[in-house]
Amino acid sequence: MSENVLRLEDVTMQFGGVVAVNNLSLEVNRGEIVALIGPNGAGKTTAFNCITGVYEPTNGQVSFEGKVIVANHPTGKMKKNYQGLNSEKYLHIKPVDPTPDQITKLGIARTFQNIRLWKSMTVFDNVLTAKHMRAKQNVFTATFRISAAEERRMREETMALLEEQNLVQFKDDLATSLPYGLQRRLEIARALATEPKLLLLDEPAAGMNPQETEELGQFIMQIKEKYDLTIFMIEHHMDLVMKFSDRIYVIDFGKLIAKGTPAEIQANPKVIEAYLGVTDDE
Length: 282
Ligand SMILES: Nc1ncnc2c1ncn2[C@@H]1O[C@H](COP(=O)(O)OP(=O)(O)O)[C@@H](O)[C@H]1O
Ligand SMILES: [Mg+2]
Known about the structure:
The chain is of the alpha/beta class. The chain folds into two domains: about 1-105 and about 195-280, P-loop containing nucleotide triphosphate hydrolases (Rossmann fold, 3-Layer(aba) Sandwich), CATH 3.40.50; about 115-195, no CATH class. It contains ten helices and ten strands. Strand 4 (about 60-65) and strand 5 (about 65-70) form a beta hairpin. It is globular, with a radius of gyration of 20 Å. Adenosine-5'-diphosphate binds near residues 18, 41 and 46.
């Protein structure tokens, strides 16, 4: 029935003494929109960075479509300093430590909390270059040369993505000249250009007003259907999260504190407490 696309098991990311992500296990199934929420500093972006090869987690593993794509256990200095759980569970495995590029090629794309576009490139070239990155995956065919036919196809697909985002009129402008909301759109277009199966969105509605946020939610639903995507998003706008996600994971201080449907999460006292900063009696 529900097929696992992304699976985290015991993922822990420790920076010196700071345990930013602590023993996080979760799943995202094919076709779902799943949200990861939690207060600032909870470890959400760090979790994304562990999935996408930006950081090598201190412990745990990440699987994509049933295959382990990231795996590690505390080594070196961390062996002594490790404060997470289940380190012994992964001692026998060989660490798997992909680069962000390799993760992209597997079919995982992301956007960033602080928009990261290629600043000196035009809107068009931002998307086209992402297409090129995706194409250069076979040592024997495309690494050194993209054929003229393939280049033409990529340019057409780039235009189609820009059309979908209403960005065609800006195609020759520098990416950074776009207003903020459109830069976010462009970042999504660029992520889609890599033909992902799983799209990770880090606060896609940051800085948007309620109307823009609602439009973004509708847009996320549209691209999910159109491109047959699975979506895992970090978001602070609760209206967006509650309306558009199938399921929600909540973390606080790096640890999973709740998971469930939007209705379950809204009624969960632990979540309310984490957000309101109320301490209980223990
Ligand atoms: N590269 C890093 N080095 C040291 N500490 C980091 C690093 N990246 C994140 N952290 C720390 O990890 C914690 C979680 O940060 P982050 O994942 O950005 O939180 P969130 O995205 O939930 O707001 C914070 O305490 C942050 O300071
Ligand atoms: Mg963050």
